[in-house]
Amino acid sequence: MRNRIGMAGLVAGISFLAMGSAQAVEIEYWQYVFDTRVKAMDQLIEKFEEANPDITVKHVTFPYADYQTRVVASKVAGQGPDVVQLFYGWLDNFVAGGLIKPLDPAVFPTEKIESEFFPIVSAMKRGDSYYGLPTAVRSLALFYNKQLFEEAGLDPNKPPQTLDELVEAAKATVKHDSGGNITSEGITVSWEGQDHQWWREVLIRQNGGQPYSDDNKQVTYNDEAGLSALKFITDLQTVHKVGQAGFMDEGQAAFRAGLAAMTIDGTFRLGAFESNPFEWGVTELPANADGVRSNYASYFANAIGATAEGEELEAAQKFLAYISSPEAMAIWLDVVGELPARKEAALTEKNLADPIYGPFLKGLEYAHTTIFVDEQAQRQVAIDMANRVLLQGQDPKDSLAQAAQEEQAILDRFYNK
Questions:
Q1: What is the value of pTM for the model shown?
Q2: DSSP H/E element including 213
Q3: Burial environment of residue 358 by CB neighbours within 10 A (0 to 12, 13 to 18, 19 or more)
Q4: Lowest mean pLDDT: which of 139-153, 248-262, 334-348?
Q5: What fold, for 140-296+373-415?
């Protein structure tokens, strides 16, 4: 009879790791390439293997652009991963493709998951089944370059707290050459980065709207709220001239180079920004004029691969339990900078008081998690919408209407199939 690894073992730390398999077994863990995430997982695998000498975990990585394709191809070949990482927004595609299997509730009890993890974990639930668990969760915040603030005569310890203040700070810090070309951005304009999330779940709501209907079946942003939100970001380039799409290819690269005073990004950038050659700070996403704040929360989860069976399945469940444990979350926070997915591990007095982690944790209190049916396609709709305005000069209202029509077609295909 196979061993049962209850979630109680997770709460107790790694004591459950003493449970051994009957004989040596090798499993594969797959994730996409992101330096700090790879380093963190290597550490977790080393600790897991030390406690479980009868289990070997092979760490397999692929470039982000190829990742989903490789997972699908492995399933077709019958040689998929035993534990696989996926963005929560990919869940429906992974389930429909038969790439992962539901978690065994005898091993991962639903009541334990829902009482110990942040509520956004429910985005990994379909019907009565959970399909994966996160190690960490992410929210957005405003990163700012204190050196550039000082050069512009701004107080480096008083970052903008409202959208109006954000625009004024961007105007004060942007730099142009004699031909009017931006040489250093006041704020990045990066829809391929996190601007599409800022538009969808933050600015639209701050303008009194919501991006989708409550049942998620209808696009609802083709209104004044959606238009005001779109214009706010695109006006940063077209009207205020404080940022430029494609400047240094992407926003985070410009910020790391010290050529952007502000950028909106997630906790996953903390590890990468550690080596920035200047002092920087983090603050909550700016509120609107009425003090309303919003945020976007997301995560990558780990799931059991569809081909895992027998001893490999047992070992995979054991590994998933460990990388979802408080110990693993502490390591992930230290190496990657992403917040623990368990409330008790995240909401410590130390974390809440931290000048870097604190703003992200506060953001989780009022964050929304988009339920994507095809994250890649829906993200591209938003990027194309912005590019029509920024690069082709299309009227924002017309571009918004086109985006709503295109995204509604994506939702219709999913819900009517």
A1: 0.83
A2: none
A3: middle
A4: 334-348
A5: D-Maltodextrin-Binding Protein; domain 2 (3.40.190)
